[in-house]
Design a protein that fits this description.
The chain is 68% helix and 4% strand. The protein is built from 13 helices and three strands; from the N terminus they run αβααββαααααααααα. Strands 1-3-2 form a three-stranded antiparallel β-sheet. Strand 2 and strand 3 form a beta hairpin. It is elongated and about 65 Å long.
């Protein structure tokens, strides 16, 4: 999962083309004319060629003799790549990304919270507490210097993943970060603030108490609340059965893309 950290002209071309593909401005099968790209961005052919190599490595573009460079089928895209996630969540969030993130988080984060309750040390627990305090301040004060709620929310979940003691779970933040930012931009105005904060506090309390079963259940409840907020923001109507069986969320979200 290689993230492209390039800046300058090369980075601008990569990021702009990647974003256009994720927005659907460039569709699978569409050709990409390197000469036209060079003229549009006022860059050399070498810059365009290197940018296309980056996008090829992420599965977004391909090339065939006598056909040229083209946008590949979605099945080839490296959707877990950090840059691809960022491009999907830039500007107007991708509804499908938001809903599918909820499904993945419901599978992973309750288990991670349970592991954190069993394995966390004092320093890790303190990191979770500090993150929750920042999240609480981000909602409860009008101070212009208050923490950003999305960053505070992300740090809380990062701290829990780190406390799980599982390096692979900790790396899940590569997926979590851009997608959680997209969810918060989409659903923040629909969140029930007290329920949102109480849910995070309940997770922290269970982890602090070393109660793995309670930590997993409280996190599952928090994920259900998050899914409900996202569904409201997307104009979907979910009942208890939908939250108990997240696959129904995917079915609903696919209707947004027909």
């Amino acid at each position: 999962m290689n993230n492209f950290g390039g800046r300058g002209l090369h980075g601008q071309v990569v990021n702009e083309l990647g974003t256009r593909i994720m927005r659907g401005e460039l569709l699978p099968g569409d050709t990409i004319d390197p000469e036209q790209i060079a003229l549009e961005f006022q860059v050399s052919r070498t810059v365009v060629r290197e940018a296309l190599k980056v996008l090829t490595a992420k599965g977004l573009v391909g090339a065939r003799p006598r056909f040229g460079t083209f946008v590949t089928d979605r099945a080839n895209w490296q959707l877990l790549d950090g840059d691809v996630m960022s491009w999907r969540s830039s500007d107007q969030p991708d509804p499908r990304l938001v809903m599918e993130l909820g499904e993945v988080r419901r599978l992973i984060e309750p288990a991670a919270a349970g592991m954190a309750a069993e394995r966390r040390d004092a320093a890790q627990l303190e990191r979770i507490r500090v993150a929750f305090d920042a999240l609480d301040r981000s909602y409860r004060t009008d101070d212009p210097d208050r923490p950003d709620h999305t960053e505070a929310d992300l740090e809380f979940h990062r701290a829990l993943l780190a406390a799980s003691g599982n390096e692979l779970l900790e790396r899940f933040e590569v997926v979590l970060a851009p997608a959680l930012q997209a969810r918060d931009r989409l659903a923040h105005q629909h969140m029930t603030t007290l329920d949102f904060l109480d849910g995070h506090r309940a997770v922290y309390d269970a982890v602090a108490a070393g109660d793995a079963a309670a930590a997993a259940e409280r996190m599952r409840e928090l994920m259900d609340l998050s899914a409900s907020d996202s569904a409201i923001a997307l104009g979907l109507s979910l009942g208890a059965a939908d939250l108990a069986h997240p696959s129904t969320l995917s079915t609903s979200s696919k209707r947004l893309h027909r």
